[in-house]
Amino acid sequence: MARPALVGVYRPAAPLFVAGSGAWLTDEAGRRYLDFTSGIGVNALGHASPVIRDAISGALECGLVHTSNLFRTSPGEALAEWLTSHSFADAVFFSNSGAEANEAALKFARRWARAADGEGRTGIVALRSGFHGRTYGALSATDRPAYRAPFAPLLPDVHFIDPLDGDAARRAITRSTAAVIVEPLQAEGGVRPLPAGLLARLRQICDEAGALLICDEVQVGLGRTGALWAHEAEGVSPDIMTLAKPLAGGLPMGATLVSARVAAALQPGDHGSTFGGGPLVAAVALAVCRTIADPTFLEGVRRRGARVAARLAAMRARPGPVREVRGAGLLHGLELDRPAAEVTTRALECGLLLCGAGPDVIRVMPPLNIEPGDLELGLDRLEEALA
Ligand SMILES: *Cc1c(COP(=O)(O)O)cnc(C)c1O
Q: What's the 173 CA to ligand 1 centre distance in angstroms?
């Protein structure tokens, strides 16, 4: 195969996909694959979802794809209204990706800290094995030496703590901390749920130190764990939450949700995005959000998730490469005794698409509305790939 004229930062699998439907993708030779990656958590409603198709055609009918934030359009305002009425938040900033949503979160945190406290409160605390994106600010809060080293120096005043070290948070979060950024379930870093109680403890320590708590729910928010927001499981609310991957069902969109005190610190000109919150993506995102937030839909995610957990536990119990199974809802990780790539390659031969989460973890992340029969078939194929 000729090398495509693309910068070599990816190592895509061989199939060239030409069509999709539900949990299935079809390559140019007509071979069909079950998609347990959901485009890295983006295609929450699967491929060719009628919800998304209808929202796109509805938006196109009125002819508004983009106007910029110089002007008002109603879909973005309706989406912001929906997001604030279904979360802790009081206001929303829209962007185009997870990294951008986190850039905004980090900037807003420092902006708020400066308004609230003057100079000196600029620190950002992040967790080991976390992932927040590839742009400079997001990368600075990402604990992945291989992603960071080629691009140093990064943003100063970012401090990492080990989520398993019970005292680290109290030592690191001080009166010079603007914010703590955390994924309620670490996805890219190996599908690692936070230790029980850690999120609540971070909330308490942030309150005592006068710092903000940022939940990065770019991957685990909007139903992936079986709850609308992953932080619900710990019964705490952040001050800022970032969303992206599934938000517009496959169209690029990021959102930074903030509480009233953070919103109050933001002034015209403080931040911006040319594309953010455009009428087409916002209309699609509103349809996706309404679909996922339906209690029956979320119940379906939990039911499917319980089935995945049971079957993965059985795979682990058998002799084979699976060392540990972790996760929640429809995001599970299998830690292996060998490189993840060996199993993802083998799965591809079995007609199953999987992605890794670090060197020795594979991720099981089907669409949230996957047909139960497809779910079983994909798990059968996974079993075959592990054999
Ligand atoms: C994917 C991801 C990001 C980055 O999102 P992009 O859209 O790739 O910039 C940030 N945080 C988390 C938790 C993610 O999973």
A: 24
